[in-house]
Amino acid sequence: MSMIGIAAALSGAIAVAAGAFGAHGAAGPVEAEWLATGGLYQLIHAVAALAVMRLSHGSAVTLLVGATIFSFSLYAMALGAPRWLGAIAPVGGTLLIAGWISIAWTFWKRRADPT
Question: Of 2, 45, 46, 56, which is least packed with CB atoms within 10 Å of its CB?
Fold first, then answer.
């Protein structure tokens, strides 16, 4: 469990750094937007992973992996990588959706068991 916490905390730190770089050092407005979007998604899902890591280890990991794939494809493009990397972002987005559905499923299974 502590590795998930460490990964989520580092993910949050990277998200803040990406947002700050986007606001102050991006090459242009498109790159700034990619950094802002990646940072927002990564930060939200880092916090979500921290919130659910004890409830559902798999969900937390899925959120972190999805956020990493989604955000880092945007970060790479913002830093000059080829735009075809944008085709990788939906893989991360799909994992993010899967993570949220996994959380919902976990709550659904536990709805009759208050413990």
Answer: 2
Asked if 64 contacts 45 with a C-beta cutoff of 8 angstroms, the reply is: yes
- Tokens standing for 46? 């880092």
Other beta carbons within 10 Å of 8: 24
What percentage of the chain's residues is helix, strand, coil (to nearest 5)? 85, 0, 15
- How many CB atoms neighbour CB 71 within 10 A? 27
The alpha carbon of 34 is separated from its chain's Cα centroid by a whole number of angstroms, namely 14
Whole-model pTM: value is 0.92
